[in-house]
Amino acid sequence: MGACSPWIFASSMPSSASKRSPKRSNVSQQLAGVSLRDVQRPVADELEQVVAELRRVIAADFPIVSEVNEHLLQMKGKLFRPTLLLLSNKASGGNTARAITLGAVVELIHLATLVHDDSVDHSVLRRGLPTINALFSHQIAVIMGDYLYSRAIIELVRLEDLEALRVLARVTNEMTVGEMRQLEAHDKLAYGEGAYDQLIRAKTASLLSGACEVGALAAPAAFRQGLARFGMLLGMAFQITDDLLDYTQSEAVTGKPSGLDLREHKVTLPLIAALARMPADSPGRRVVAELMEAAEPSDDLVADVVRLVEGAGGLETARQRALELAQQAEAELDVLPPSPARDALQGSIAYAVERRS
What we know:
The chain is an all-alpha fold. It has helices at 6-11, 16-20, 27-31, 36-40, 44-58, 63-74, 80-91, 96-121, 132-135, 138-159, 162-183, 193-215, 221-248, 251-254, 260-263, 269-275, 283-293, 299-311, 314-332, 340-354, and strands at residues 125-126, 129-130. Strand 1 and strand 2 form a beta hairpin. The chain is globular, with a radius of gyration of 20 Å.
């Protein structure tokens, strides 16, 4: 990345991390341009084992389930959540063998939420592939999401790990409640930043936090708590960046239609920030209201709202919020001793806020 990198810009802002750890004051500049492969390098072998565990855990002697499973494994994506769990485990001196199965469980929970979300939203593409509901049916998608959740629970019971079960049961409940909150958001134009923060903490950040915490369950309380906070802050920055990509990247890059959130009448931080700068009777606000009232917004209408959001500074405000959260996440890693795994966790921050898909 060049000097214009938003992560480099963020490093110039004061933070609690720079106050507590002067030796690390330039770490943000060093992290610019980190790829997911860089982040995953310390746990690359373990991630291959996580994929093998996934296959073992979801295997079923039932043709339709096996067929759906094969498609799910193609959709498994980047394994970011198992990566965070494994890195947290290594950075805190945990048990790697157990962490591999827990990494598979976390990915199963993530896949289950995606399958259900796609069915609720009637989405047809995920990571450039047909969704389960599009390729099979909504009924199969709902049942398969339930199947994945049940397999995750069975594995946690098999491990006899009550604390991991407690953490991930709480996370699953938070994600479910978050989804319900989103469905209940009726007055789209009145949806505020506080409600949005609450939503992304529940729907996205809670699982990243849970992954980091579960990876450090055997570690001292300070490590476990710091990593849980790190995962929460990282998850919020990750989701804001994801919401920005919906405005700035094409389907060819993200694997899903651009402007999808607007087409589905979802209000995210870029739009919230832009609306806050629009007077109640402004033409811009009326255009946004028109989009929210349209059952199927036209491409032109979506493009108009994207331009309005950018012109009102919504994209820049969201970027800055993601960077603030990223710096707070970085500060939480100060509790950990130096190690390649901790360095990779720091790298995951840059990846989360600078990724393009």
